[in-house]
Fold:
Amino acid sequence: MRKQYHFWPAAERGFDAWDVDRLIVLSRGLPIERVAVDAISEIDTAYWFEGSDEVATVRKVVEHARLISEVDISFPIILGQDGRLMDGMHRIARALLEGRAQIDAVRFVVTPAPDYRSCFPSELPY
Structure:
């Protein structure tokens, strides 16, 4: 599995970043709930490309299409305390493609502190 981070815009500069491996560990044992796919606001954003140096080229879109087709949908998506997505957009995209209205999710009661603050993706270890 490739190293992944989840990014939210930071108050000062750049982004706050969470190590997805840590989010998975911290979310183990949280109750699984069914969430409406349409309730995930990020599905109507430039999620994979917004705020990054990446351009949504055909090659990049195809890379995401490959990840969507290969994703293990047995794992729930991870939501922050406020319902924002922290991990699982490829699983959500797969649910959309398959016409599923709901997806399994876990939700933090308190969103964990980020691993990195006010950073840029290019500054992180991969």
User: Anything to note?
Assistant: Residues 58-70 form the longest helix (13 residues). The first strand starts at residue 5 and ends at 9. The two ends are 11 Å apart (CA to CA). The beta strands are 5-9, 15-19, 33-36, 77-79, 85-87, 102-107, 116-119.
